[in-house]
Amino acid sequence: MISRRDLIGRGSLLAGSSLLLLSGCNSAKTEDGPLVGTPKRGGRIRVGTVDPSAAGNLDAHKPTGAGIIRGWALYSKLWEWTPDVTPRLALAEEAEIAPDGRSWVIRLKKGLEFHHGKTIGADDVIFSIRRLTDPNLASPFAALLAPIDRDHIDRLDDRTIRLHARADQGLVPLSETWISFGGIVPTDYHPVTNPVGAGPFRLKEFSPGQRSVYTRFENYFKPGQPYVDELEIIEFKDQQARTVALLSGQIDVADIVPAEQARLLSGSSLVDIVESPTNGVQSFDMNLKHPIFADERVRQAFRLFADRGDLVQRALQGKGRIANDLYAPHDPTYDLAIPQRVRDVAQARSLLKQAGKSDLAVELVASPAGASAALVFAEQAKDAGINIRVKKVDEATFYSPEARTWAISTGSIPARGFLASGLHADAPTAVSNRTNFHDPRFGALFNAALAQPDIEKRKLLVHEAQKIQHQRGGLLIWGFAHVQNAASKQIGGLGSERTQFAAWRFDELWRRDT
C-alpha cells in the first residue's frame, strides 16, 4: 500500500529533436475518469487526510506531515502531472532542452501572479530552485535536482531563465523531477511568516495537526478555476476516524484510502470510490551492504520464491498488478523483452545452498503501509527454508537514517518515468537508496541516459541498465498498487488516473449541491 510519505515526488521528449515543448458516472466505484457532470461554482469542500504525527508545515520545498497535500492547494509549478503520468507545462509557457541534454531554457507565461499580487518573474524561479537545493534547507527532494548547477543559472529576461547541468550530468528528466514538490515561490517567501504561492487557493488559516482553510485565488493561472470558494483540509490521527467522518458527512473527500476502509465505504449509498490504476511501486529493498544480501545469489533467491500474484491478492486485496523487479513500465524506454520473473522455489533453494545460506534467518522491517505485504512475504519464504521475522515500525523510525542499516525493508516508489524513478530509488544520486546499490556500469549508463534527449538512443542505455537491475540490483519489485480515493456523491471532478494525485487536484473539484 502507498502512504503519503511514499509520494514525496514520462516526458514527451521528441525523438531525434532538441526541443521539448509541453502544452499546457456516479457509482460505488469509478475507474473511467472524473465523476460526470458540469462543474458548478461555489461552496466549500472538506478534504480529510490521515497524519498521525499531528505536525506538519506549509513549506513548499520541505513539506512535513500533511504539508505535502497542503502544497497542492498553495503552490503551482512550472510543470504538472497529466492523468496519464506525463508532465505538461503549467506556469511555464515554453521549455526547451539543448541537444546535449545539459541545459534548459524555460520561459514563464505572461501576466502570472502570486497570491499577494506580485508578478511572477525569472527572479522568483531562480530563487525557488536555489532555495529547494540549498544545503542549509536540507530538503529531501534536493537530490532530485542534484544535476543542476545551482550556481550557474542565467537570467535571460524578466520571464526566461537558462539552467545548466553540473559536470558530467544531464537534465533530461527535469520536467519529472522539478514538479510535485517544486513550487514556485516569490523572493520574499517564508514558509511561516509569508507562505505565498500561485496555487489554486490562498491560505486563510492554519492549525498544525488539526486543519487548514483556504480561499479561492481569483488570479489562478487556469481561467475559471478553481470551482469552489473555500477548501478545508482536516487532519485525522487514524483511518477509522476519517472513515466515520466521511460517512457522517463531516468531510467530503478522503485521499489514499486503504483497501480495508475502501471496502467499508463502498457499501454506502452516499460515497463513491474512485480507483486509479497507478504504476506506484511496491517492493522489498535488499541492502547490498548487509552481509546477507551482498551475495547476488541470495538476492536472486528472494526474487524467485516471491509469489507476486499472491502478494497482490492478499497484501493489496487485488487492488494492483504484478511487477517484474523493474519500475516505470509506462516509460517509452522500458525493456519489454525482459521475461517476467516467475516463482521457482526449487531454484531459490539451490541458489541459497550455493551461497551457503540454506538455513537463513533475517529480519524484515516494515512500514505501517507495508506491514501486510511483509507478513505475506514471510509466509512465502518458509517454502524456501527461510525464516523471516517481521518488525513493524512507525513512520518516524522507518524514514530515519537507521533505515540504511537494515538488511531488508518494505519499500515503494511513486509512479514516474525511468530516470525520475531512479533518482528516487537507486541511481548514483538517489533521494533514498536503501539498497545501497552502487553498480559502476549501471551508474555510467544511468548518467549517460540523463544527458540523452533522443528516445531511441536513450532506449539502448536504459535497456542495458534494466538488465543489470533485473539481474543484480537490490529492488524486489513485486507489484504496482492501485490508489483508491473516496468522495461524497455531492462532489464532482474526482477522476481515475495513472497518478497517485487524483484527490489532490483541488482545482478540479466542485460541489453538485451549490
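(ticket continues) Second input and output from the same batch:
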Amino acid sequence: MVLGSFVFFVLAIVALFFVGYSLVNIPPANALATKQANVYLYADGSQIARDTRDSQVNREKVTLAEVSKDAQHAVLAAEDRDFYTESAIDPKAMLRAAWNTATGKGKQSGSTITQQYVKNYYLGQEQTVTRKAKEFFISIKLDRNKSKDEILEGYLNTSYFGRNAYGIQAAAQAYYGREAKDLDPARAAYLAALVNAPSEYDVVAHPENKSAAVARWNYVLDGMVKKGWLSQSQRTGMKFPMPKEQTLSTGMSGQRGYLVDAVKHYLIAHHILDSDQLEAGGYRITTTIQRNKQNAFVKAVNDQLVSKLDKKNNKVDSYVRAGGASVDPKTGQVVAMYGGIDYVKQYTNGATRGDFQVGSTFKPFVFASAVQNGSTTQDGRRITPNTQYDGTNERPVQGWNGGSYAPQNEDQRSYGQITVTKATDLSVNAVYAQMAVDVGPAKVKQTAIDLGIPSDTPDLQPYPSIALGPATASVLDMAEGYATLANHGRHGTYTMVKKITRNGTDEIKLPDTSVEQAVSRSAADTTTAMLKSVVQGGTATAAQAAGRPAAGKTGTAENDTAAWFAGYTPDLATVVSVMGQDPVTAKHMSLYGALGQPRMNGGGPPTQIWAQYTHDALKNTPASSFDLQLQEGADQPQPPGPGDPSASATTDGGTTGGATQPGGTPSGTPTDGGTTGTPTDGGTTTGGDTTGGGTTTGGTTGPDPATVGGATGGDPTTTGGTGAGGGPATGGGGAATGGDPATTGGGAGAATGGGTGT
C-alpha cells in the first residue's frame, strides 16, 4: 500500500513535470530587459555621455568578449561557481536555500545563473509560486536552446548593480568610469558582490555597510582562487578598490547635453535613426567631435566672455549667451560645438538655435554670388574686389522695382566712392544693398543655399535687404556656409557622426557623403581674399591673434541683440555668436553695456573667442597659407562709378532722424546693430524704433567704425504709414528679433524685409 502510494506520487510528479514543460513556452523578453541607454563618444572613442532619457534605463549591452575574463570569473564565483558544469536548475541548492530561509539563517535564492537570467530577461521580480514555476520550466528549456556563453552574456547584461546601472558595462562606468573589458580582479569582484545586494553594498552611499561589502568582496576573490581563476599570489595583499562618487545628476551637464541633443537631431533629420529606435536604445554613437578642440572651445568662451561677466552688478551681463560651431572644411565634420554655459542651466543650444539675425556675416555670400553669376553694376562694370560703389549713407538702391530702399550705414556715415574690398572691411550697407540688386536678390538667396544655408531659414527673402543679414540661420548653418568658402567652393553637408553600432556588434550604415561645387573656385577664393583683408585691417583685426592666415567677417543683429564672427583658416571654419536673451522671459535683449562696453561688437568678444579657440585647436598643426585662384581681373583697379561727389564727406554717427523716402516714411535705424528697415512698394523703410511712421532714432556712436550701431530705446515693433497704391503689407524678411513681432510697413506689393548690419 505504501509502495503503491509512493509510486503514484512519483508518477504524479513526473506527469506534472511533463504537463508543465509542455505548457510553458519561452516568452518574449520583458520590456525592461531590452531597453538600453545610448552611448555617445568623442571621435577618439572616449565617452561624452550615456543618455538614458529616452529608454529610462541605464544599460549598454555588450558581448561576452567585451567583458574581461576577470569580470566573468568574479560573477561566477559570486553567484554560481559550477555554472559551466551544472544543469539549468540545482535541486540541492534550492532545498538548501529553502531550509536556511525557513530556519532563520538568512534569505537565499538558491537559483542558478540560468534561473536568475530567466527572471531578469523573461519574467519579473515578483515573488509568487506561479513565477517560480515558470522560471523552473523556462530555465530547463533555455538550457537546451542556448549555450552557456549566451546565457552568461545575457545574465551579465540584465543584472542590476545599483546606481541605476543595469548590466556589467553600465556598472563598470557607474562605479569606476571604465569599460567592462578593462575590469581587473579587484574591481570585478566588487561589482560581482553588488549583485547580491546592490544598494546595501554601495560603500559610497552606505559607508556604514562597508565591512559587509568587503566581506562579500573577499568571498568572491576567495572563490576565484578556489576555482583556479586567480592565483594566490595575486590574491594576497589585494586592496579593496573604492568606487568613485556617484554622478548621476550631472550626466547631461556642461556641454554634454548640447552635444547629445545636436547629434540626436542630426540622426533623425538625416533619417539614420528615428525617435523610436533611439528610445529602444543600445546604440554606441561615435561622433566627429574632437575632445581637444571641444575643450579648447569651452576654455576660449570662458576666458574671453564668461569670466568677464558681472551679473550681480550689471543686469545686461545676465542676458549674455554664446554659441559656436567649428567645421573641418575638407571633410565637413563638425569637430567642436559650444552650446552654452551648462545644459542643465541653459537648455537652448546656442549653436543650433535659429532665431537671431546673422547680420553682416551674410555679406560675403552676396559677393560670392556676384562673382559666381558674372554680375555687373547698374552701369555695366563687372563686380570685382576693386569695383567702386557709392557708399553714401541712405542712398536709395537703383534698379529695384519693389519699392524704395535706402539703408543707413553704421553711425550714418557716408563714404562716397569706395571699393568693394574697403566696403567689406568697413561693412558699408549702402554698397552691399546695391550689390544685392545688381546680382539679383533671388540669385543671392540661391547662392547662400548652395553654400549650405537651409532654404527654409526664416527671413531669407529675395529682397535688397538680404545683403544685410535679416535671416536667422543658426551658428552651425553659418559654419557650414563658411566651410564651403574655405574649401574653395566645394560643399558637402556637415556630418556629426563617424560610426554607429548596436548591441556591441551591429553596425548601422551611414549616408554616403557627396561633395558638390556649390560655387566656382574663383568665386569662393576671391571672396576669401577679400575676407583676409577684413582680418588684416578691417573690423576683425582681433582674429590675428590666432597666429595664422585667416579670413572672416563680423556681424551684428538688430538692436545689438547678437554679435557674430564667422571666420576660417585653410584647416578650420568656425563661427561664434554672442546673443542677448532674458533668462526669465526668453525675450531677445539688446547687449548695449554688456561687459561694461558701449555695445557688443562682432569684432570684440566673438572674434576674440574665435582667435583663442583657433590658436589652441590648431596649435599642433603647421600653419598653412590659402591657395587662392582669383577671378579674372580681381586685382585690376577700376574707375569710379556714378555717384554724388559731395557724398564723400563722412557724417558723424548718432544723428537723430532718417532721410524721408518717396513713400513719406523716414528710413530706418543704423546698420551694424540695427535693422535697416522693411521697404515696401509704397516706399516705407522702417527700422529701429519708429512709432507710427514718424521719427526714427539714429545710430549709437561706438568705438568701432565698422560694427553695427543699433537704434536706441523703444519697442522693436515698428508701424509704418500706408503708402500709395494700396493697403498695408507686412515685411517678409523684416522680423525684429528680441521676441517681438515683425516690422510692419505700408504700401502695396511685396514687402522687402528688414536687414541688419555688421
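Agent notes: Confidence is low (pLDDT under 50) at residues 17-21, 644-756. The chain has 21 helices and 18 strands. Closing as not reproducible unless the customer responds.
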